[in-house]
Amino acid sequence: MALDLHDGSAQLAAGLSYRLQDLAARIGEAHVLKPEIDQLAALARHSVADLRAAIADLRPPELDDLGVAAALRTRLDAIDGLEVIADLDAASDRWPASTGIIFYRVAQEAITNVIKHAEASRLVVRLFEDGKGEAHLEVIDDGKGIGELRHPQMRGGQLGIVGMRERLALLGGRIEIEAGSSGGTHVRAAAPLAQETTSE
Fold it and tell me: What is the percentage of the chain residues whose pLDDT exceeds 70?
């Protein structure tokens, strides 16, 4: 989908933007349609930016450039106002692409829930594989706890949980979300690794 958007809609929008800018330059400042063409050109530029953001969101470039562990570390390094502990196994960078992106998305959603809803002071993220051929993710916080997500105002958080379950189901995986032993929320995700795990 990301490639289709890049090669299709994004290219068309970029072409439209360039043509409108060129037209605005050719008709001159005095033309009666110049302000309207400038507005259309600005709208086309915004459309290109939105499409590029959507493409990056579908397939974050840092996953291709860095791998899932390094991409997650970059995401965690950008968090302010929380003590963040990252235990990210570099071996996860060799996971199959489908596993990497799904675990990245699940981690991203869980981290977003912590930032938006948990009122936590501490966040722990672990990414690793066990000796049984399974990939694992843990996201642990010391915030208000999972019970808050059942409140009607937290519907977005509930939808995010559904999304995480659906993503992991694509890999034959599972997710558990429960109250932490000393408060907060503990998210555990696991999925079998494909036998064709890539290697350098």
Answer: 84
Tokens of 182: 């000393």
CATH topology of domain 63-192: Heat Shock Protein 90 (3.30.565)
CA geometry: angle 139, 143, 147, nearest 5 deg:
90
Closest CA to 187 of 119, 118, 130, 91: 118
Query: In 144-159, which positions are buried (b, 16+ CB within 10 angstroms) versus exposed (e)?
Result: bbbebbeeeebeebee
**pTM of the prediction?**
0.67
* Phi, psi (degrees; rounded to nearest 5) at 107: -60, -45
Q: Which residues pair with 174 in a beta bridge?
A: 190
* Confidence tier at 8 by pLDDT (50, 70, 90): confident
Structure tokens at 160: 């995010």
Q: How many Cβ atoms from other residues are within 10 Å of residue 86's Cβ?
A: 15
